[in-house]
Amino acid sequence: LSICSRTVEPLEYYRRFLKENCRPDGRELGEFRTTTVNIGKCLCSITTADGSALVKLGNTTVICGVKAELAAPAVDSANKGYIVPNVELPSLCAERFRSGPPGEEAQAASQFIADVIENSQMIVKEDLCIASGKLAWVLYCDIICLDYDGNLLDASVFALLAALKNVQLPLVMINEETGLSEVNLKQKNPLIIRKHPVATSFAVFDDTLLIVDPTAEEEDLATGTVTIVTDEEGRLCSVHKPGGSPLTGAKLQDCITRAITRHKEVKKLIDKVIKSITPK
Predict the structure, then answer these.
(1) Cβ contacts of residue 230 below 8 Å, gap of 6+?
(2) For 123-159, how does the pLDDT look when each residue is reduced to its tens digit (9 = 90+)?
(3) If pLDDT is split at 50, 70 and 90, which confidence band does 1 have?
(4) Which residue segment(s) compose the domain that 74 sits in?
(5) In sequence order, what are the beta bridge partners of 15?
(6) Where's the Exoribonuclease phosphorolytic domain (predicted)?
(7) Pairing outcome for strands 82-88 and 135-147
(8) Which residues contact 200 (CB under 8 A, 6 or more apart)?
(9) Maximum pairwise Cα distance, the chain
């Protein structure tokens, strides 16, 4: 296959590979790119964060930093803290993104992450409350794409989960006499993670063919995409399908089955890395 045909007729070029049940990068249709995760202070760029992680999915590279701050709870949610996710796609990560206020794709990704946090109940907001009506934790979760080559959502959810697993919050008490908060930095506790959501994304080719973990090029050529989020019990937390080709019930079930398998792979990877950085 000449390189010329890839430039002139990229879709035809891809179809020739797909007929052989493989892709130009050598992967099978249901195969993920090499996935790696680094957790914690090994990330010199965000040592100020209370938890951090860097995830690579092929060339797609995403970093997540979690900053914990104290604030008064909202009046109508006196016993709840806050989680504020934000996804950034800076111009340095790909030519398609521009400097300035967040574009449509970054806003959609931030909303998707907020929905995953809410639907999966990975963190219960009541767990972030220190004193009802007085004091609670706010977790600012900044997810920044350093290199964009497709499948931003899978990498972002993975980086968020890994960074949250790395957060240690100091013990905070409210002094009864003064009414002021006292922070004990010597006594820290890990964040309570109730569920471990993992995202698995697919691109749809020619309305029928599903390929997992699409690159940026594959996303551009696809007739649609779908992202399935599951937890460790195989429960469906979210199905994200922004338009494009409709999927049959059978195809959707195929995606869910693959997502459940992927969950096990990602969870195993996170557990292995956390075990390696935990002091003996």
Answers:
(1) 197, 198, 200, 236, 237, 256, 259, 260, 263
(2) 999 999 999 999 999 999 999 999 999 999 999 999 9
(3) very low
(4) 27-277
(5) none
(6) 31-170, 197-260
(7) parallel
(8) 154, 212, 213, 227, 228, 229, 230, 255, 258, 259, 262, 263
(9) 78
